[in-house]
Design goal:
Helix content is 70%, strand content 1%. The chain contains ten helices and two strands; from the N terminus they run E-E-H-H-H-H-H-H-H-H-H-H. The longest helix is centred in the middle third of the chain and has 34 residues, at 129-162. The protein is globular and about 80 Å long.
Length: 285
């Protein structure tokens, strides 16, 4: 008696190579070159799916809302006379602290990819490094700009309801909402550019916080008459003073005013992003 033969599984035939127009091999899977829209979709998926985005922007929203309302209630409780000072200027304190969160997120948007090695996958899927950097900057800028404008408008509206201050003009409202949103989002772009150059999250965040706070702190301790010019320049062009100028309540009477702080931060962010592009294009990942 013989054992029946075990049925053999049909062998899988190797898939024939797809004929290429010029001869050789071409994948049968349709392949198309990634577009800028694909890069935007990829960066949007990454920025909204990581915890750092929710934490940093969540803390920023809480700081802007809580400090804005607390400052309004504190002024209302003391019956302080604001005089000709517009109520909108009270939003400065929450925005200044919230800017630290935007700086942190701006650095992490690109430096975290270097830390995890994700940047290799990103550049394999989209070899155009300029396109990757542009997509990251666009997604980050639009996200932080929208959130900052919404929160600045909400806080300014609530402060106006709580306090009776000098009426603000349309230009004042535009600078205290859209202008502040543009300034904070552009400050975040400056952080993103520095993060691409430094490629180290802690180092880039430390440098950015020092850039925001150190000029003002140094100026406060310059008591020598020989340093008066340097002290005045540090006061006038420090980031807190430029941010205060958008609210019409700058620390110094001279220096940038009106929309001038926005042009200054735009120039600084353009230089940082140009350096980031050169760094991303010339250095290995």
């Amino acid at each position: 008696m013989t054992t029946p033969a075990t049925p053999q599984a049909p062998q899988q035939q190797p898939q024939a190579a797809w004929p290429a127009p010029g001869g050789g091999y071409a994948s049968p899977i349709p392949v198309r070159a990634p577009t800028f829209g694909d890069a935007l979709a990829s960066e949007w998926t990454k920025i909204r799916s990581v915890r750092s985005t929710m934490w940093t922007l969540g803390v920023m929203i809480v700081l802007m809302l809580a400090i804005g309302l607390l400052s309004a209630f504190a002024v209302a409780a003391t019956d302080a006379n604001l005089g000709d000072e517009p109520v909108l200027s009270l939003g400065f304190f929450g925005v200044l602290l919230g800017s630290i969160c935007v700086i942190t997120l701006g650095v992490l948007t690109i430096s975290s990819e270097y830390g995890t090695g994700m940047i290799r996958t990103t550049l394999t899927a989209c070899p155009s490094r300029g396109r990757v950097l542009t997509a990251k900057a666009t997604v980050f800028f639009l996200l932080t700009f929208v959130i900052t404008v919404v929160m600045a408008t909400l806080v300014a509206g609530l402060q106006t309801v709580i306090l009776d201050g000098a009426p603000a003009s349309g230009t004042d409202w535009l600078r205290a909402t859209v202008g502040v949103g543009l300034y904070i989002a552009t400050l975040g772009l400056l952080s993103l550019g520095l993060g691409a150059i430094i490629r180290h999250s802690a180092g880039a965040i430390t440098i950015m916080i020092a850039l925001v706070l150190l000029p003002l702190v140094l100026a406060m301790f310059m008591f020598s008459e020989s340093l008066a010019d340097l002290q005045r320049a540090l006061f006038e062009y420090s980031i807190p003073n430029q941010l205060g100028a958008l609210y019409g309540s700058a620390i110094s009477n001279s220096g940038p005013s009106g929309w001038e702080p926005l042009w200054i931060i735009l120039g600084a962010a353009a230089v940082a992003l140009a350096g980031a592009f050169v760094s991303l294009d010339r250095r290995d990942v």
